Amino acid sequence: KPFLLLGAFAYFASAVGWWAADTLTVVILFRALSGIGSALIFSNAQAYVGDLAPAGSEGRYMGAFGVADFMGFGIGPLLAGVIRDRAGIETVFLAMAALYAVVFTLILTVLPGRPPHGQGGIEKLTAPWGAIARHPTMQALLFFRICFALATGVSMAFLAVHLEERVGATATMVGLVFAAQQMAGGLSQPLLGRLADRFSRRWLVFAGASMMAAGFSTVAWSDSFPVILAGMVLGPGLAASLANVSAQAAQIDT
To answer: Which string of DSSP letters, residue by residue, matches 26-56?
Structure first.
């Protein structure tokens, strides 16, 4: 819980910092702070849900949790766009700060320090880093996460630029691509979580990663907006959801 609180405060401070920033250096510094907040929130939130999950149902629990994750990433760009059009870019960051103030308050007042019905996750946390790094399943999952993060980072940084410059897409069309991608992945999480509890998680991760690669490739060989939109929905949307929920379930089970 303290780590989650620190993460929420880091995001709150970053939002205020971006609102007040007047140089690129300041923006970069607060962007780094938001990265620390992300590490504190997402890893600990997943661990919390993992402790709640009964044995054999890790996929379902991570799938249900993933709905909020994906839907937030999908609704965020659209909501921020509306706020920007109506009230200006500065208000976007103030709205973000307000949301994280609410998040901080909810964590502080509502969330128990540890999962109330955990399955003994405290003992699992005693494994040394060396043992985790040498575990073959964890090595594979770490490599997958690195590759996934690289692909996602490139997409978030440059896909909008490509769509505007090469495809002639408007800002609304760009927002539609990101929103549709994330919402498709979010809404499919519960179903895909059940698949991760019934079938080989290793092969589901492999299938999801392969489909992600195919979806991303549409940007390289097509300048058609409908084709790229379909590729992003099927690849970084649905396929990423399948790979992620299966990888998270395998990580919890390990």
So the answer is: HHHHHHHHHHHHHHHHHHHHHHHHHHHSPTT
Residue type at position 110? V
Tokens of 57: 């149902």
Q: Distance between CA 3 and CA 169 in Å, rounded?
A: 40
CB 8 within 8 A of CB 107: yes
Which residues are within 8 A (CB) of 181 and not within 5 positions of it... i.e. 6 or more apart? 74, 232, 233, 236, 237
> Would you state the structure tokens that stand for residue 63, as one six-digit string?
């799938």
> Residue ranges of the alpha helices (H) in the chain?
2-20, 24-52, 58-87, 89-109, 121-124, 129-134, 136-162, 171-187, 189-198, 201-221, 225-232, 240-253
Residue 17: CB atoms within 10 Å: 18
Nearest to 178 by CA among 157, 196, 192, 198: 157
Apex 74 CA angle, 28 and 193, nearest 5 = 115
- Separation CA 247–CA 249 (nearest Å): 5
Classify residue 153 by burial, with Cβ atoms within 10 Å: 0-12, 13-18, 19+.
Answer: exposed
pTM of the predicted model, to two decimals?
A: 0.67
The string of pLDDT tens digits covering residues 113-131 is: 776 654 444 444 556 777 7
The answer to whether 8 and 103 are in contact (CB under 8 A) is: yes
The pLDDT tens digits of the residues spanning 134-184 come to 888 888 888 888 888 888 888 888 998 899 888 988 777 887 888 888 888
Tokens standing for residue 243: 């790979």
